[in-house]
Design brief:
With 338 residues, this protein is of the alpha/beta class. The protein has a single domain, classed as Vaccinia Virus protein VP39 (Rossmann fold), CATH 3.40.50.150. The radius of gyration is 19 Å and the shape is globular. The site of S-adenosylmethionine has 21 residues, from helix 5. Its main location: plastid.
Length: 338
């Protein structure tokens, strides 16, 4: 429902240290964020980084059975122990091993003679060149043409949505090269962070960025390869799922959000950013044709409307839909009912 009242937010960045690369610290965007009837007013000015939840049990599950994975090697979620990690499904007995940079928890993990390809919007990010360029210019273009406020402001804004689950565990779903996963870890606001992506090369790049950083908190940080539509977590085991700039890349947003809803515990929070196109543009006759064409060519669900995003969350059992907007940028949030 785009019955917009416009509010101007001026987030402060006092508690923010600048851990990412290639993003200028200066706030370049006017951040005129539009609020609608279901839109939250986010006051980040007096934010206390209070820690409300503490949870550290292992939520990892078999992507086939959704039952707990049991550690074969010494248990531990840490960047440094990934290469030695070995877990087994308590039900189907399948074993999942860590490689140099991440734990592969896709269904086809370990199948040497079988592989599947995804739509272009997923496959694109598996290319080594794209993974390399992602934080070296690619992501910045979202701000130029898409109204994305930039990682620092996005982090500040999402923290307000995540307030009820601070101190819990968080999955950075479709993390790319770990832009936000690294911020989550360094903020100390969560008991554990899983950086999850389908792209091996994005995960590799994330691992390299972490290795280049001094004093990165590697404990309780894990890199996991998984399909968003088959999340390797036990049901109701996760406090927060963040998905930055990814919903429009997923082959089926409904399959993805349903999975996110499954893994969230009651009261758990989903927060995501994507591109939105509605309001004054809705009557444009060719808009739905344009969307259909983009979908057919790339598999991308780019430019959903606010109404569609709200319906998507509701259809997947999430409540309390809120969003904040800036041009084509939207940050949405919804909660698993208690
Ligand atoms: C535009 S990037 C977003 C990266 C980062 N979250 C950000 O905010 O910049 C989209 C990411 O979605 C991931 N992705 C696409 N399809 C996926 C799928 N089926 N399962 C998991 N991740 C997927 C891509 O690999 C890519 O890293």
């Amino acid at each position: 429902m785009a019955t917009g009242i416009a509010v101007t937010l001026t987030p402060t960045f006092s508690s923010f240290t600048r851990p990412t690369r290639f993003f200028p610290a200066t706030a370049k965007f006017p951040l005129r964020l539009q609020a609608s009837s279901s839109t939250a007013f986010i006051d980040t000015t007096n934010q206390t980084d209070s820690v409300a939840v503490t949870r550290s049990s292992n939520p990892l599950a078999c992507p086939i059975c959704y039952n707990s994975l049991i550690w074969i090697t010494d248990p531990g979620l840490s960047v440094d122990t990934i290469p030695r990690s070995s877990l087994q499904c308590s039900t189907c007995q399948k074993t999942y091993n860590g490689n140099q940079t991440h734990l592969d928890l896709t269904v086809t993990s370990g199948a040497k003679s079988y592989g599947e390809s995804m739509p272009a919007s997923t496959e694109l990010f598996r290319m080594p060149l794209i993974s390399f360029l992602y934080e070296r210019g690619w992501r910045q273009t979202f701000s130029v043409w898409g109204g994305f406020p930039g990682p620092e402001k996005e982090f500040e804004l999402m923290k307000s949505f995540l307030k009820p689950v601070l101190g819990g565990n968080i999955i950075d779903a479709s993390c790319g090269s770990g832009l936000f996963s690294r911020l989550f870890a360094k903020s100390g606001l969560f008991s554990s962070v899983v950086a999850l992506d389908y792209s091996e090369n994005m995960l590799r790049q994330c691992y390299e960025f972490i290795q280049q950083e001094n004093n990165f908190p590697k404990e309780n940080f894990n890199l996991v390869r998984a399909d968003i539509a088959r999340l390797p977590f036990v049901s109701s085991s996760v406090d927060a799922v963040h998905a930055g700039a990814a919903l429009h890349c997923w082959p089926s947003p409904s399959a993805a959000v349903a999975e996110i809803s499954r893994v969230l515990r009651p009261g758990g929070v989903f927060v995501a950013t994507t591109y939105i196109l509605d309001g004054p543009f809705t009557p444009v006759p060719f808009l739905s044709t344009l969307r259909q064409n983009i979908r057919q060519v790339s598999g991308s669900y780019i430019f959903l409307s606010e109404r569609e995003l709200e319906a998507l969350c509701k259809a997947c059992g999430l409540v309390g839909f809120k969003c904040i907007r800036n041009g084509l940028f939207v940050m949405i949030s919804a909660t698993k009912p208690k």
